[in-house]
Amino acid sequence: MLLRSQEQGGYWHGVAGGIEADESPAQAAVRELAEETGLAGEPTDLGRSYVYDGVTVSCFQVEAPSGWEPTLDWEHDEARWCSCDEAEALLYWPEPREVLRELR
Q1: Which residues are CB-contacts of 84 (< 8 A; sequence separation ≥ 6)?
Q2: CB atoms within 10 A of CB 74
Q3: What value, to the nearest 5°, has the Cα angle with vertex 70 and ends 83 and 3?
Q4: How many CB atoms lie within 10 A of CB 103?
Q5: Which among 32, 13, 17, 36 has a CA at the least distance from the CA of 87?
Q6: How many CA atoms lie within 13 A of 5 on its CB side?
Q7: What DSSP state is assigned to residue 20?
Q8: How far is the C-alpha of 24 from the C-alpha of 90, rounded, in Å?
Q9: pLDDT at position 103, please?
């Protein structure tokens, strides 16, 4: 879980971001993951999406290597490893909570 800086809203969420011109959702996921955490990984499409504020959000997962720790960008103040239950309790937005429930 990532804690957005106070300037960015100060709430907990997963890696997220917009799709740039000529990017697929998977390519955007790879780029945002690297930008926000420093992790280079190949996303697995969860086959799940939701609409937030008129924008379709595609959901992916990436496996981090054992012992890896994130290097946060300017948008985030803290990262936390946690269980799905803990993540669900931290998440600010209801839509990602529902995605976590479906992963169990």
Answers
A1: 100, 103, 104
A2: 10
A3: 65
A4: 11
A5: 13
A6: 9
A7: P
A8: 28
A9: 84
